[in-house]
Amino acid sequence: MSSVTADHVPASHGHDDHDHKPHGWRRWLFATNHKDIGTMYLIFSFCMLLEGGVLALLLRTELFSPGLQFFQPELFNQFTTMHGLIMIFGAIMPAFVGFANWMIPLQIGASDMAFARMNNFSFWLLPIGAILFTVSFFVPGGANASGWTMYAPLSLQMGPGMDFNIFAVHILGASSIMGAINIIVTILNMRAPGMTLMKMPLFCWTWLITAYLLLAIMPVLAAAVTMLLTDRHFGTAFFNAAAGGDPVLYQHVFWFFGHPEVYVMILPAFGIVSAVVPAFSRKPLFGYASMVYATAAIAILSFLVWAHHMFATGMPITGQLYFMYATMLISIPTGVKVFNWVATMWRGSLSFETPMLFAVGFIFVFVIGGFTGLILAVAPIDIAVHDTYYVIAHFHYVMVAGSLFGMYAGAYYWLPKWTGRMYDEKLGKWHFWSSMISFNITFFPMHFLGLAGMPRRYADYAAQFTNFNEIATIGAFWFGFSQLIFLWLAIKAWRGHGEPAAAKSWDGATGLEWTVPSPAPFHTFVTPPVVK
Amino acid sequence: MTPEQRRKNRNTAIALVILVILVMLWAFWRGSSLGG
Fold first, then answer.
1. N or C end of chain A: which has fewer CB within 10 A?
2. Which residue, A25, A182, A157, is CA-closest to A97?
3. Is the ipTM of this complex over 0.85?
């Protein structure tokens, strides 16, 4: 069961109306309120999205035509690396933690996160990591240019920018671990009376599972980059072949983190879509329990498939077969989810406001990304298209159109709850269609480029690839500027423009968050609601 | 938050921190046993 009702409406409770919030800069620097911290996470991640986006546009500018136009290959590779790192650790992950901070206490009827001060610390580590990433461009040798995967031995040969990179990953990893602990403890211990685990909204479930994933993988990444650090400066030889180490071992350790990390960036989006689709279908979510089990199955399987990123390293045939079939297995629980979303819409009373457009758009493009993932799981095909633009196309269909569209669905869905204003629906629809069309113009041609053999991470390419690259670059600029529509629209809602939002802003919405006023008061559920 | 609730939260967090430390030690152990 996914929908719950409270036996009293906390919005009318006197305690919730008290406004004890601090004012000025202290409110933000010393913030312990989950809504303030959630807001800071969301603003931070959007800034990082813009920084990572600018780097992407610099890449696309260089790739508009063959030959070297603007950047030397070394700088181009720094851009590719930092684009990936900033988008993953600066934009997508913090954005979902922002959603978690805002929505999990509201959805489970808790007054705040379990560890409010640790929550503050988790957030304020992020700008430090972001600064380290950014200033690494200006140290001798420039930023890390070994790719976001930081593969040894290349990463062992980088300049001091790599050390900045390692330090930043440590800090952002620590932030993620603290955030994950906070989320797990909040969900396990602070649910309102009557809110059993199987009554929780699916967003909370997906985040609970994601938080466990984070606890299991971030220490592995920390260990991997620490071993890189000691190889670089303290004479160890974990990954240095010249001293008896094994560079392939780095790939094993990294991808043991890296593949579940993909699901860290997509499972919360599944949760958001599982909230939005029922609301705009005006039906309960189809197969709630199977959604929970499918999420858990995806998380477990994600630990068993890491070496499908390494088919090209040379692997015994039995190893290839195992990782190929294990990877294909993930499509089963993922298919359950897609089936359930479609079944939820089946014979529903559908309407297509912006959150629903982004949710349906998410399903459409995520399925494309999923299918290309299945194709890449086939070892012989993967070896042929390894490190080509086919891979770039695949993971941008999952990460941009998957994670980002999922986040936009959630942002539009909950914006009235956050700001107390209905956003400009017309602008929202423009944002969706402009993003959807330009996204496909950018990334769909990359499938063809990859199949034709264009390698990734090069500043130059053969003349035969020119046309598709020109199209991709035009699409990328269109997509980039489309995101400014959202910025404008969100600022408008934040500044109080637009119609006042009702407590229950969408007629099909269910859950405790819609029982408190819009905007949600500074303190909510001081007296826990009782869930029937 | 009641003292009982705080204690419960703290104990859960300590268990999770122990899990994190064990995972990190495991990763180092795998690195050192397979690598250099």
1. C
2. A182
3. yes
